[in-house]
Amino acid sequence: MSAPIDDAASEALAPEALTWVNRLLSGAVTPGEAGEFVLWRTRSPAHEHAFADALSMQRAVRRTVQAREQLAAEHPTVTRLSAVDPRRRAFLTGGIAAAAAAASYVIVVRSDLVSDGLAALTSNYHTGVGERRTARLADGVSLDLNTRTRIALIGSTARPAIELQSGEAAISAQRTGGAFAIQAGEGRTILNQGQVNVRNDDGTVCVTCLAGVAVVEHPGGSVRLNAGGQVRYDGRRLGKAEPVDTALASAWRKGLLIFRDAPLQGVVDELNRYWPGKIFLVGAALAKRPVYGVFHIDQIQEAVDQIRDLTGAKLTPLPGGVMLLR
């Protein structure tokens, strides 16, 4: 028989529980904090009960906010809305309940949705979490955008170009009237007849030539890439051209992620690009475990489950799409 729950103790833990809910749903939880939360939640039945109530309240407030917004849109003159269902156990009162409402409203506006909205203002083409799209430009140029990607049109009619502001894209060019330029970070790639895959992670750029010939120009010099060649650069340094397996670099275009003896930390970082929540990895030894596998981009949850089975890690699902591997 389960242990009885001390209501007084549960209510005393309400502020801590609410803090954990808001922190988890913020998307800014560190692996260490995620581990602390697991310990906090399992400390006693009262802790578990307080967390369940806090989560229930957050969901109720979120539904209230959404209902208010819908009602205001349908009936602009209506400014009031009935409170949360009184049958719900309202253990948060006074200032704590107000804090829950304010925090929950912020939580509704997810950080990825905000960034997507900003992307629409600063780019001509963009994709959200887990989204892919294609676009055709004039003069024989086409784009394939991967998840969380922003591209702006720059240059002129005489010298067309794009800027890969963030994310990853495959650019194909079959031009007869001059070269096409792809600006990314501190460098740019010149393409005339061919195809390249360009990825920009906060100014660290990787260019892979999939077909034809491309030239990468950088303040530190230039590199000519033939099909199967790859180069990396950042704001300070331009690397050397190296041969790579282009099937790995372009697997995302087929909806796949391919890893060959990649460290688990790198695999988790890649999965997080396609997951609307956050996957945390706890443990230095686990982070170094090699992973060999093929995963479907539209089945990230299944990929995490497979990784759990392959590595023997323990998987703990948390609110807000957060998953903890340890």
From TrEMBL:
It comes from the Bacteria. Residues 124-213 form the FecR protein domain. Residues 16-54 form the FecR N-terminal domain. One of its GO terms (molecular function) is sigma factor antagonist activity. InterPro entries: FecR (IPR006860), FecR_N (IPR032623), Ferrdict_sens_TM (IPR012373). It holds the Pfam family FecR. This is Anti-FecI sigma factor, FecR. It comes from Caulobacter sp. (strain K31). The lineage of its organism: Bacteria, Pseudomonadati, Pseudomonadota, Alphaproteobacteria, Caulobacterales.
